[in-house]
Amino acid sequence: MPTSDKARLSLVGRLYDIFELTLLTPSFLLYFSNTLIVYKDCEEEIMNCPHTKIEAALDRWSECHWYVHQMEENYHTPDLFRYSLNSFIRALKEIPQILKMELQNELSFKRQFKPIIDLLNNNELLSKLKKKRDFIVHQGMLEVESSGCIGTTEGRRIKMSVSMHVEPHETTQEAYDRFKDMCRNNPVLREMVGPDCDSWPMIRREWKTSDFTGKELLQLAIDAWSLVGEVISKIVQIMGGEPLDLSFSCRHDPEKVKIVEFSQHDFFMSVDGIDINA
User: Fold this and answer.
1) What pLDDT is recorded for position 210?
2) pTM of this structure
């Protein structure tokens, strides 16, 4: 008789002795014993799943993903954008240490896992972000730079634009209101970059920092998230799991995130005093 069947019959016998004074039948006890054995098999399978061994690191990586979407959503509101970026950097910085804590008891930790995790500390991008995180901890505020251009859109393309300084503390709406004031006082500027009956006013904005020359901060965050994800994915594969999805397919169109279109009707009314719908 197979060992598994002997185990079931032995368990049934013990259960029957326990419940012989009840209305439980041997057939029910057999069902109950099979359920216990299946549950034990499932429990062992869960414990052997690579994801459960680095559950905290995966959770923190998912948290970083969420912060990136908060950066997208609040791109044109400086304080909320900066808070989201700060939180992203803090969470990202913690992942290498969490991985080491979760994997330190694995037999192959020093030989396989630790060298892979240490790659994160040696990466130039992540190293600079770590310094930014230390700056946040000690001084409480991350310094970021904002740049922009003002102009018009027609259909899906930018028709005309000129560079315009957008203050880091200034919302895009506030920058637009300032632009309208400039147009009221400068007819030449109004004629050059203001909308006509076929176009809409817009501002295109970008966030950067001096430590990453020419690198837009939202893209930088996604690049950092992907780098950490590559390391976590390698660890999962070493433990027998499938590669992680690093595509970030849920991100929004970067250009649409950076651009805000404003009301054509409002511009003509507030700047020119003309109701184009009349």
Assistant:
1) 79
2) 0.78
